[in-house]
Amino acid sequence: MREDSLSELTGLLRQVLLDLTHAVDRTLSGRALTLAKSMPLVALMDGERHTASSIARHVRCDAGAMTRIISELEDKGLIARERSLEDRRVVHLQLTDTGHAAAREVPAILHDVMEANLACLADAERQMLTGLLRRVCAHADVAGAVSLAEPNLSAREAGASPPGRIPETDRQAAR
Predict the structure, then answer these.
(1) What are phi and psi of 50, to 5 degrees?
(2) Are 36 and 22 contacting, i.e. CB atoms less than 8 angstroms apart?
(3) What is the per-residue pLDDT across 64-89, written as a single tens digit (0 to 9) for each?
(4) H or E element, residue 163
(5) DSSP, res 154
(6) What does the buried/exposed string (b/e) look like for 112-150 if buried means 16 or more CB atoms within 10 Å of the residue's CB?
(7) Nearest one of 38, 104, 44, 49 to 73, comparing CA atoms
(8) What is the CATH number of domain 3-119+161-174?
(9) Considering the entire predicted model, what is its pTM?
(10) How do the domains of the chain map onto residue ranges?
C-alpha cells in the first residue's frame, strides 16, 4: 500500500473512532457517564467477581487509569469494592443496584449511536465493512497486533484478551 493511502486509512480509522467515542460520550453525558466509564459497568454485568486489573485488561486500559475510573464509579454509587475473604490483598468489584440499571442502558445506547452513524451505508456496505474489520481483527490477533515498541511481542504474549471476553485466568484469580 502506498504511504499516502496508508496515512489516509490511518487517519480515517482514527477519525471514526474519535467521532463515535464523542457521540457515545455526548449521549451518555446526561447519565454522568462516558464510554470509558461505561465499559467497566458492562464488563461487570456478567455477575462474576472481577478485580480492577482484570477489568483493565478486558477493556485494554492501563491499570492506573482504570483505578481512577473505578474510584469515580464508586463515588457515583455505581460500583462497590469488597475485599476478598481469602486474600485481603484482592479487591473484588461489583455493580450496585444503581450500577446494574446504568449498565443495562449502555448496549442500547451503543446500538443507537452506531445505527445513526452507519445510516449512510446500505446493508450490503455494512456487511462488507463488518467482514473487512473482522479480517483485520483476526489478522491482528494471529499476527500479534505488532507494536513498534515491541515488534516481536504478540497480543497473546502480552496478555490481551479478545474483545468482549475476560480471560478465564482473570476470572479464576478474581474468585
Answers:
(1) -125, 160
(2) no
(3) 999 999 999 999 999 999 998 888 88
(4) none
(5) -
(6) ebeeeeeeeeeeeeeeeeeeeeeeeeeeeeeebeeeeee
(7) 38
(8) 1.10.10.10
(9) 0.74
(10) 3-119+161-174
